[in-house]
Amino acid sequence: MSAPLGPTGIATEEPVPPPEGAGLPPRQRLSPGQWVRENLFSSPANSALTVVFGAFLAWAGYRFLRFVFVTGRWEIIEVNLTNFLVGRFPRDELYRPWIAILIVAFVAGVGVGLSAQRGRAGTWWTRTKPAVPGLVLLAVLLVVAQTWTPLLLTAASFAVAAAGRLLGARLPLRTRRWMPLVYLATILAVFVAFTGWGGVGWDSWGGLLLNLYLGIAAIVLSFPIGVLLALGRRSTFPAIRLVCVFYIELIRGVPLITLLFMGALALGFFLPVGWPRPGQVVRAIVALTLFTAAYVAEIVRGGLQGVPRGQTEAAKAIGLSPVATTFVIVLPQALRNVIPAMVGQFISLFKDTSLVVIIGLLDLLAVAQVVTQQGEFLGQGLEAETLVFASYVFWTICYSMSRASQRLEKRLGVGER
Amino acid sequence: MSEPSAMGNGGDSDAAVRVDADATRATGETVISCEGVDKFFGDFQALKDINLRVGRQEVVVIIGPSGSGKSTLIRCINRLEKHDRGRIVVDGVEMSDDVRNIQEIRREVGMVFQQFNLFPHMTVLDNVTLGPRLVRRWNKKKAEELGMQMLERVKIPEQAHKYPGQLSGGQQQRVAIARALAMQPKVMLFDEPTSALDPEMISEVLDAMKELARSGMTMIVVTHEMGFAREVADRVVFMADGQIVEVGTPQHFFENPQEERTKLFLSQIL
Predict the structure, then answer these.
(1) Which residues touch A252 (CB under 8 Å, ≥6 apart)?
(2) CA torsion B88→B93→B96→B99, rounded to 10°?
(3) Residue B205 · residue A342 · CB < 8 Å
(4) Do A416 and B78 touch (CB under 8 A)?
(5) Strands B85-90 and B59-63
(6) Does residue A363 sit in helix, strand or coil?
(7) Where along chain A do its domains lie?
(8) Which residues of A touch B80 (CB under 8 A)?
(9) Mean per-residue pLDDT for B25-32?
(10) Which of B123, B163, B180 is facing A318, going by the closest CB pair?
(11) How far is it between the farthest Cα atoms of chain B?
């Protein structure tokens, strides 16, 4: 709403003449020289700070760029790119992830096409900007891959996404109502693409694929559980309230690593005799979900408390049942208010998925360490390269999530008082 | 600040029932009756032995100093507050702890709040049609036709697709009236509907309420707008310290008040 939040650079590209008669002070255009003088060298102390920090930044930037482009030995990434992305996933089954990517690209295209029907906000650039880090990562991966197949398949994905977008723009607007179901179906379809027709079970997944899968599964599962826990904690039934409070406080008092160990070692004790023992990935998902649900519950509870009591009273006064009051009036407002905190929790969850290394799963971070033990790279101190690469991948995904949450916040904020 | 003894006030309640017969426009049929209603907030007694009957098509205005229990009384009538003793009967249904009873009463009783309490995440039309759709189970088309009628009645059909946050206070309060009317209630309760408004917006809300009164709606209005009370009310109820002190026609009430407490209040505000 305020200027600093808005997209930058518009005012300078297309100066909008102030409306006539509006007594706005004339906007000063500073030349670069003036800007530097006013902002960086306005006083001796300021000049000194500028010089010191400028020197430090220049040095750090030089070291970093030199590492990335000159001294860094990136062959370890090039050789192991597939390991980083999918871990031990069987190499002759790699067409499965690509099928999954094509499905996701198509559905995402349809979703974008549908939402574009409501009218687009902002310029082409402001709409594309949030995707830039992701596109850069993609470009980096393609450059590192150095083969034609991924390039062609990526191009195919974009083509499929474009087709989906065209389709989405032509669908009737009421289709939007079904999109949440479509997204759930997509998750299922992706799962089938991996495991169907004699496919590859979870326990052979690894690398980034594993992080993504754990993250998405835990988010999708922990969100509804967390919401129910939050509602339960405010329930008028003491028994329900007690159970929810007990659960939340118990989980929040235990480190995630403990839960992961418990999941890996002790989950079996809680299952009825004769049930199949779940694999490690399922155990990890259970632990991550239970853990995150408790935090989601507390975040949602904060949101519920922020909804004015008058809202509940007005809903009661027109005769809404308590259930309708909660799900139609209170929860939507509460959830919108806690989007930033909630996404923060989910970003945290996504990064925490790399903790599964302690129960023997080979995620992106684990791969980053394992590959330095390969014969040809052993003892060469290549951890810097692999860890920087893993961090970069994590950063791109987390940053994109953060941007997506800001967009969601803005879109849901329509008409907010 | 309270001088009148408990004894004296008991007598006032009798007066309340007696003057009931004076109701000018009421058809004689009782829609709301409160008998010996008490309400406590902890140790504080907010309502003391309230006896009040409201006839069909009657407009009752409740006035009194702040903290006198006016809002509490009308909030008891649709169970936003639970009364502790006595009986409240709305359109033949006695208020009890039974959830179905409460729902039935709330369906017949519309309420307008001081702070509007519109749902900020829904458009104006959705605000108005929510009750009919979810409570009366009407289909969308039917509910929206009725909703638009109600918005026309309060003279803001052109705002139907905006969000509450985009409207002025007066417009929001008129939407709130339309939202309550969309449930086609038999009684409308107004809890200081103009107190949160800027002065220039008060008249548009009062006009909507006057139109409603002329159409024969049964109304209980808590307000500080004495002009409205004089012009529209069939009876004025004066409350102080949780009790009904005096009841009468506006003429009787403003020109010939009987109780000292009433005279004092009127001298302070007029």
Answers:
(1) A294, A295, A298
(2) -140
(3) no
(4) no
(5) unpaired
(6) strand
(7) 90-199, 205-417
(8) 313, 316-317
(9) 73
(10) B180
(11) 58
User: Residue written as tokens 């394992």?
Assistant: A370
| Whole-number Å distance between alpha carbons of B158 and B174 | 13
**Tokens standing for residue B82:** 């639970």
DSSP letter string, B22-66: G-SS--S-EEEEEEEEEEEETTEEEEEEEEEEEETT-EEEEE--T
Q: What pLDDT was estimated at residue A72?
A: 74
So what's the ipTM on this one? 0.85
Q: Which residue has the higher pLDDT, A266 or B156?
A: B156
Q: Is the pLDDT of residue B129 over 60?
A: yes
Coil/strand/helix, residue B154? coil
Residue B14 predicted with pLDDT over 60: no
Contact flag A416-B165 (C-beta cutoff 8 Å): yes
With beta carbons under 8 A apart, name residues in chain B contacting A414.
163
The answer to whether A320 contacts B131, with C-beta atoms less than 8 Å apart, is yes
DSSP 8-state secondary structure symbol assigned to residue A69 = I
C-alpha span between A355 and A210 (Å, rounded): 12
Three-state SS string over A208-274 comes to HHHHHHHHHHHHHHHHHHHHHHHHHHCCCCHHHHHHHHHHHHHHHCCCHHHHHHHHHHHHHHHCCCC
Q: How far is CA A66 from the centre of its chain?
A: 30
Ordered DSSP codes for A168-220: HHHS-GGGGGGHHHHHHHHHHHHHHHHHTTT---GGG--HHHHHHHHHHHHHH
- The model's confidence at residue B239, banded by pLDDT at 50, 70 and 90, is very high
Residue B196 touches chain A, beta carbons under 8 Å: no
**Given A311, A320, A324, which is nearest B117 (Cβ)?**
A311
Tokens encoding A171:
């669908």
Q: Kindly report the nearest CA distance between residue A235 and chain B, in angstroms.
A: 16
Q: How far is CA B166 from CA A7, A276, A409, in A?
A: 23, 57, 18
- In angstroms, the separation between the Cα of residue B10 and the nearest Cα of chain A is 31
Using 50, 70 and 90 to split pLDDT, how confident is the model at A224? very high
- Cβ of residue B180 closer than 8 Å to a chain A Cβ: yes
pLDDT in tens, A387-398: 888 898 999 999
Q: How far apart are CA B77 and CA B90, in angstroms?
A: 8
Q: Which of A318, A320, A327, A411 to mutate to test the interface with B (most CBs of B within 10 A)?
A: A318
Residue pairs spanning A and B at CB distance below 8 A: 77
Q: Which of residues 323-352 of A touch B (CB under 8 A)?
A: 324, 328-329, 332-333, 336
Fold classified for A205-417 = MetI-like fold (1.10.3720)
Share of chain A above pLDDT 70, in %: 91
**Cα B130 to Cα B136: distance, rounded to the nearest angstrom:** 9
Collect all residues of chain B within an 8 Å Cβ-Cβ radius of residue A335: none
